[in-house]
Specification:
2 copies of one chain form a homodimer. The first copy, chain A, is α+β, with helices and mostly antiparallel strands and 103 residues long. Chain A has a single domain, classed as Winged helix-like DNA-binding domain superfamily/Winged helix DNA-binding domain (Arc Repressor Mutant, subunit A), CATH 1.10.10.10. In chain A, 54% of the residues lie in helices and 14% in strands. In chain A, strands 1-3-2 form a 3-stranded antiparallel beta sheet. In chain A, strand 2 and strand 3 form a beta hairpin. In chain A, helix 1 packs antiparallel against helix 4 and helix 1 packs across helix 5. Chains A and B meet through helix 1, helix 2, strand 1 and helix 5 of A and helix 1, helix 2 and helix 5 of B. The first copy, chain A, binds a DNA duplex (30 and 30 nucleotides) through helix 3 and helix 4.
DNA sequence: ATCGTATTTAGATTATTATCTAATTATACG
DNA sequence: CGTATAATTAGATAATAATCTAAATACGAT
């Protein structure tokens, strides 16, 4: 599966998007993240692993706790894809969209 | 289901993303779109309906053919969400950690 | 009305995914 | 070592989603 596809699939779940949102401001431990959701820890752990596999988060162990952090590199790829969609749309209407006086 | 969630779910399928990519440059008919994929027309029609339900595309009938077009309003919402993720990250490195609360 | 074309809808099947409980690993500490 | 804590892995189940074939709808032309 392509990196892009993994990322989009990972983003398709609201719980996972919320996890990413919490990581915007910095790292958090698995436990800290888990307790904010109405879901068992194993379920949360599954979501972490999906995000990790999509390279949307980083992880490091510190003693018995694991710290997760946002990895923006893939997020930026996604952003580029979405922006392309909008940008392409701007130049779609065949007759002279005003954009740098061509023609 | 929220609009955001519908959109992300719709975007999670590679076929649907490819459809959107084809619509960047302008409208296309259902048949024209369908023949570019190795998939039956009913399956393609299903994807159209998912995209439509997520408000990612518009549709209008012209005689017996249906024209689909990109609807960028929701795409922009998605873009905003993704950009927030990256922007938040930029200001994250302030690990004075009022959050970690290592208890 | 009948036919042909474009497209969708219905219903079934299969694959994927989210979630749970129970068990396991990893680490720290007495 | 034995116990407690943090987190994951395993295995099962139930809900979603993708896809197909067959049938139906919508429209235009004959």
């Amino acid at each position: 599966m392509t990196s892009e596809n993994k990322a989009f699939k990972a983003l398709s779940d609201p719980t996972r998007r919320e996890i990413l949102g919490l990581l915007r401001k910095g790292e958090r431990t698995a436990g800290d993240l888990a307790e904010r959701f109405d879901m068992t820890k194993p379920s949360m752990s599954h979501h972490f692993s999906v995000l990790k596999d999509a390279d949307l988060i980083t992880s490091r162990r510190e003693g018995q706790t694991i710290w997760y952090g946002l990895n923006t590199t893939v997020v930026q790829d996604i952003m580029a894809w979405v922006m392309d969609l909008v940008r392409g749309e701007e130049k779609k209407e065949r007759p002279a969209s005003p954009k740098g006086g061509t023609k």
